[in-house]
Design goal:
Length: 501
């Protein structure tokens, strides 16, 4: 049995004994396979409480290395006195008790007491009490002179006035009368170290993850996303596929590594599981992977069939050894959007239906997909659905300063003429934000050069001036520099002091 199991059962048994359930406490103690001397002592005490005098002697012998054990064992002898009718048996018991007391006195090594509190027992063993019981055993054996000497010696060891029992015992010895022994309280048990017991409880050192920054307002997601294979050559050996939960789109397996060349393309490696939201006529697929969306060549993917039978009987196939196919040519204006259904047949049946991905800069950045040439009402309705706001509360503009405002009187043909590669960037504000916006823009100066391969990050060099747009969280900001917009670390910039009026 391990130390942890022993400690757990020991603590459980002591708890039962403190509650008065001595029978259950004794059964738990007896189930411990390799009890130490303290546990044996506790077993003997519980036998005494149950009036099982014969059964108490064996565990007390096993706990013999404790100085207090012989004193408790003598209580077995004294309590059995009524049951003995033959003088020889009685004499043998008292001789054994006398030897036990002498051993306890030697264990005291001339000290007046032993405090067992450090060992887990709230009891103090006094040398004068041991000499008192030695005198009783010698008196029972008829050696009154030796009994008197031990009591006189006990008077020298007496430290407190409460030991008046020694004075009364000395008077009884002078009259050659027997007296009562000093008994150990059997309800006191050795208890395990409280620090060790506290370590038995399980502790959660990781804690619970929480959302620090999210593009979704009031995001309360907690937990950890599952790991995805990131090795270049795919899995080394076949394994059972995981159960996939597709929220939208069709699951596909990535066959070849794809390195993006533009910001709207998504980097993937062999073995990744992506969900195809929409497939265009130019053989490019709009996919989602790890909550990020982008374009991937469709001939780099393979459709993944999900069924209970295939998951139980069929593992993942080995990664292909052939070279990846050539990169397909992109057709301008046919970039898939967020509203794609993933049904390639339906899209191929309507090749003339061109859509535009509109990137909207708000307190966070998001995208909507609208038909090319759509009216202002349709555009603002789409954005209002994303923000869960009425159309009347939304103001759109073509620049971050808000001077080129788009409204119902704007010629939308001029707006759609600004579309480049199927994309258009607009700035959005609400009526509440306009009231809160400061009259002047906040400018930041770059303290260090920041370069990142992530398309959503803003690259700049030391000394560049950055227009502050919004604060993502405590460590990241969003801004505009050199015609580009993105996020960057707040520690890399400092605010430019405003000019005095």
């Amino acid at each position: 049995m391990s130390f942890v199991d022993t400690l757990r059962q020991w603590d459980e048994a002591v708890t039962c004994a403190d509650g008065g359930d001595y029978t259950r406490a004794l059964s738990i103690f007896l189930s411990i396979q390799e009890p130490n001397s303290k546990i044996c002592f506790d077993i003997g005490c519980l036998h005494l409480l149950n009036q099982e005098l014969d059964a108490a002697e064996k565990p007390l012998r096993l706990g013999w290395n404790l100085a207090i054990t012989p004193c408790l064992k003598v209580q077995v002898t004294v309590k059995e006195e009524v049951g003995f009718t033959f003088f020889q048996v009685l004499q043998r018991k008292y001789e054994e008790s006398l030897a036990d007391f002498q051993r306890t006195l030697r264990a005291l090594r001339g000290n007046q007491l032993i405090d067992y509190k450090a060992l887990g027992l709230r009891y103090i063993l006094y040398a004068c009490e041991v000499l008192h019981n030695m005198a009783l055993a010698e008196a029972q054996l008829g050696d009154w002179q030796k009994a008197q000497e031990n009591l006189l010696k006990a008077l020298d060891y007496k430290t407190e006035a409460k030991f008046s029992v020694i004075d009364r015992a000395l008077q009884s010895i002078l009259k050659q009368k027997h007296f009562k022994p000093v008994e150990f309280p059997s309800k006191m048990l050795f208890k395990p170290n409280k620090h060790y017991v506290a370590e038995l409880e399980k502790k959660d050192y990781l804690g619970k993850a929480k959302v620090v920054a999210s593009v979704i307002p009031q995001d309360e997601f907690s937990g950890f996303a599952p790991l995805q294979p990131q090795i270049v050559d795919g899995p080394a050996s076949p394994r059972e596929p995981e159960v996939l939960r597709a929220l939208e789109g069709e699951p596909h397996t990535v066959l070849f590594e794809f390195v993006p060349e533009t910001s709207d393309e998504l980097a993937v490696v062999p073995g990744n599981i992506v969900f195809v939201l929409q497939k265009g006529a130019d053989n490019w697929a709009y996919v989602v992977f790890n909550e990020r969306k982008g374009l991937v060549p469709y001939n780099y993917l393979e459709r993944l069939e999900i069924s209970l039978a295939s998951q139980r009987n069929k593992g993942l196939t080995e990664p292909p050894s052939r070279e990846p196919p050539t990169r397909p040519e992109r057709i301008q204006g046919l970039t898939p959007g967020e509203n794609g259904t993933g049904n390639s047949k339906q899209e191929e049946a309507q090749p003339g239906d061109q859509t535009v991905v509109v990137k909207v800069r708000f307190t966070f950045t998001f995208m909507v997909s609208v038909p090319r040439g759509a009216s202002y009402e349709l555009l603002v309705e789409k954005i209002g659905e994303k923000l869960e706001l009425p159309s009347a509360a939304i103001t759109l503009s073509l620049d971050p300063s808000g001077q080129r405002v788009i409204d119902a009187t704007t010629q939308m043909e001029d707006v759609w003429s600004l579309v480049s590669e199927g994309r258009l960037t607009l700035w959005c504000s609400t009526r509440e934000q306009k009231e809160e916006n400061p009259q002047s823009e906040t400018h930041l100066v770059a303290l260090h050069t920041y370069e990142s391969s992530n398309p959503e990050d803003l690259n700049f060099k030391e000394g560049d001036t950055i227009t502050f747009l919004s604060r993502v969280n405590q460590d990241w900001l969003e801004g505009q520099c050199n015609g580009s917009t993105g996020i960057f670390p707040a520690a890399f910039v400092e605010e430019v002091p405003g000019k005095e009026q």
